[in-house]
Amino acid sequence: MVMEKKPVTVIGVPMDLGAGRRGVDMGPSAIRYAMLKEKLIQLGYEVEDVGNLHVPTPETHQVVDPRLKYLKEIASVCETLGRTVSETVERGRFPLVLGGDHSIAIGTIAGAAKHRKRLGLIWFDAHGDLNTRETTPSGNIHGMPLAVSLGYGHPDLVNCLGFTPKVQPENVVLIGIRDLDEGERKLIRQLGIRVFTMHDIDRLGMGAVMEEALEIVTRGTDGVHLSLDLDGLDPKDAPGVGTPVEGGLTYRESHLAMEMLAEANVLTSAEFVEVNPILDNGNRTAKVAVALIESALGKQVI
Ligand SMILES: NC(=[NH2+])NCCC[C@H](N)C(=O)O
Ligand SMILES: [Mn+2]
Ligand SMILES: [Mn+2]
User: Fold this and answer.
1) Superfamily per CATH, domain 8-296
2) What is the tally of helices (H) and strands (E) in the chain?
3) What pLDDT shows up at residue 21?
4) In the chain, where are the structural domains located?
5) What is the tens place of the pLDDT at every residue in 85-117?
6) How far is the C-alpha of 243 from the C-alpha of 138, rounded, in Å?
7) Is 291 exposed, middle or buried (CB count within 10 Å of its CB: 0-12, 13-18, 19+)?
8) Whose CA is nearest to atom 7 of ligand 1?
9) pTM (2 decimals)?
10) 144-186 confidence digits (pLDDT tens)
11) Distance of CA 160 to the CA centre of its chain
12) How far is 230 from 227, CA to CA, in rounded Å?
């Protein structure tokens, strides 16, 4: 079966206000430098790159609430990103968002959900990103975007593009998880979200995990967003991330997941986040990100 190849729009978001350390703001450049556009053209896509959104530098702004660092600035960038993603969908194109820290998912998911009656969401990460102001151990908003998309969090974030929630817990799935905070565990239990931890992946294998995951994100939905945090991968394969956690997805496990997503032909938008070139090793993590994007968009060996 030949996959439908919607024209792709690349949107860079050099955001690092949501992370505890600098460097992810260079993620979009590093991913572009790893030949993203060329590779997608080789795959048969028409590709448009709209460049980077403007993101203020932390040095020129002050932390007002240490439990929600740079709230106003992040909310404002996410609003712009949401509009950009939404316009991209309206133009019949596939939004491919490059981060930046994971707080940008608040905007991407807002824009993607705006056009759907029900959006499925597949979230690859070492972390849950399910914290709120009350539960955060760090005050970093990149630990909160999934809670926000489900409708939990500060109103300035939750009401991005003027509606909430963006997704329903029964259509959300987390994969690769191995580092949760207590408040996140509670929210997962309360909402009944399906989480595939590394333990589950070890036991079941990524093939079986993805079969179940695909069922969850497609059941009753009219679109699926992929949010992939590179720290979901093992630090051996993706060293250039700000919050690495041992024992992650292998190169092949993550590729199999992307290949199965492409095979299912359900993706309507995607984002790849948390690439930090300062901490990387010869741009390896950005190269892995590009390879994963290719697989998610249908690259096959034969
Ligand atoms: N997108 C990420 N890398 N998130 C890391 C979050 C780490 C921790 N759970 C926190 O809330 O601070
Ligand atoms: Mn993470
Ligand atoms: Mn994350």
Assistant:
1) Ureohydrolase domain (3.40.800.10)
2) 11, 8
3) 85
4) 8-296
5) 999 999 999 999 999 999 999 999 999 999 899
6) 12
7) middle
8) 143
9) 0.98
10) 999 999 999 999 999 999 999 999 999 999 999 999 999 999 9
11) 16
12) 10
